[in-house]
Amino acid sequence: MNDGIKYGKGLFETIKVVDSNPVYFEDHIERLENSMKFLGINADNLRENIKDKMQNINLATDCLRIMVLDDNGDYDLFITTRSTDYSNEKYTKGLKLKVLNQLRDKNNPLIYHKTNNYLLNDYLHKKLLEEGFDEGIFLNKDGNVTEGTYTNVFFIQKETILTPPVEDGILPGIFRKKLIDFLRVKRYN
Q1: Beta partners for residue 148, in sequence order
Q2: Cβ–Cβ < 8 Å for 154, 180
């Protein structure tokens, strides 16, 4: 039995799809490759294998999920699609949030990678939904806001957009990085 099955040693990327096109696809694959290297999983031919498998995937959806499992240093690749619940109502009405009791450990090196060890996030998110919340917010051991069970967090204070620093124990999100880059360019133009 391989480590992907025994220990959940693997990674995934969830990619927004718009008009059958995965958004920031190259950025997601680069993060996946970097995390594979971090975990000691061979990423040879990953891009080619993903493109081959995607030929059989119907992208008439809003979300693509790419997952790799460690197979004794190599990888098994799985690609699926799913629908998200990012409705226009959620954007206009907002989300009902709850601060979680579970703390993020910024010293845990796995926090900074999108590993398949996502069971706590999934468990807590389902419990939150049962309680009538949309999302839960993790704090770190210093009491700082880090991220949600499945989201990056942003705050708007007057004309400033704030987001926790990666060093506080968050997954460095692709959209988060793109938004920060966009806002920096906008500020200096």
Answers
A1: 137
A2: no
Per-residue pLDDT tens digits for 108-141? 999 999 999 889 999 999 999 999 999 999 999 9
Q: Which two tokens stand for residue 53?
A: 């498998």
**For residue 54, what are the CA distances in angstroms to 10, 19, 34, 66, 78?**
19, 15, 21, 10, 10
**Distance in angstroms (rounded) separating the CA atoms of residues 60 and 82:** 10
Q: How far apart are alpha carbons 184 and 128 in whole angstroms?
A: 34
Overall pTM > 0.85: yes
Q: Which of 99, 111, 89 is nearest to 166 (CA)?
A: 111
Burial of 19 (0-12, 13-18, 19+ CB in 10 A): exposed
Question: 96-106 in b/e burial notation, b at 16+ Cβ within 10 A?
Answer: eebebeeebeb
